[in-house]
Amino acid sequence: MSTGSDVSTHSSEPAAWNGAPPALALRGLVKRFGQTVAVGGLSLDVPTGSFFGLVGPNGAGKTTTLSLTTGLLRPDAGTAFVLGHDVWSDPVTAKRLLGVLPDGLALFDRLTGTQLLEYVGRLHGLDPALARQRSTELLDVLDLAQAGNTLVVDYSAGMTKKIGLACALIHGPRILLLDEPFESVDPVSAATIRGILRSFASAGGTVVLSSHVMALVEQLCDHVAVIAGGRVLASGPLADVRGDSSLEERFVALVGGQRDVGEGLAWLRSSLG
Question: Which keywords appear in this protein's UniProt record, sorted alphabetically (predicted)?
Fold first, then answer.
């Protein structure tokens, strides 16, 4: 298992890697918003072919870290490598390798589901016939075929999440970065998404999943990183990070902050009497 101090010693130069580079290599990422440090010198390796979970409390810096990794935000310091390609010095190559589902994704929601997928496919350089074929396949697998001619603005929250995932998949990326991909998704659709992601990872793809649901991360992921205060507290294979406890127990021990209500909220208990 690695701790935040362990990973920060990694070299920032791709030439220093032995053999193939990791899927993602984050080196000394820093991001401030005014006086608030959202990410403070974060370094982390995501092995190629792993199903990697990012967990942390609200405000830990998970979403900001993913935004820095994908180029949606520019870091104040540090950089991110995608299969050895610097996101900021070689952005076109790096971003072609990524499929991204941000939390609160803004879509072109005045297009139908079919139009949106074909448009995103064309933006990624797919020819019209291939974009149409993949769009049809994705809508079918994600149980959105009947909504293909419906404007995305009229989709439910769960449907919007699924069409966002389809947009992340359509160009055939090597790495998926998913921020809370199961939020607002019904159990049947969640099972379908899990199957797609497991199949992707088993074929050699890399999945990075940010979630607050420890049981979900424990069920899906083989590697995990615990982030708090914009830093990595622990990272490595899931079994190493959680040790002899559950991931949730290990998370609470690392992050702290669990509050003993004790005699507090007496008024709430008395109202039941």
Answer: Antibiotic resistance, ATP-binding, Nucleotide-binding, Transport
**CATH number reported for the structural domain that contains residue 15 in this entry:** 3.40.50.300
Angle of helix 113-123 versus helix 157-169 axis, rounded to 10: 30
Q: Which of 73, 208, 191, 78 is nearest to 141 (CA)?
A: 191
pLDDT digits 0-9 by tens, 200-212: 999 999 999 998 8
For residue 81, tell me if it sits in a domain. yes
As to burial, measured by CB atoms within 10 angstroms (0-12 exposed, 13-18 middle, 19+ buried), residue 143 is middle
Residues forming a β-bridge with 79:
27
115-139 core/surface letters (b: 16 or more CB in 10 A; e: else): bbbbbbbeebebeeebbbebbeebb
Total domains in the chain come to: 1
Range of the domain at 37: 1-97+224-256
The model scores a pTM over 0.85: yes
Q: Is residue 170 part of a domain?
A: no
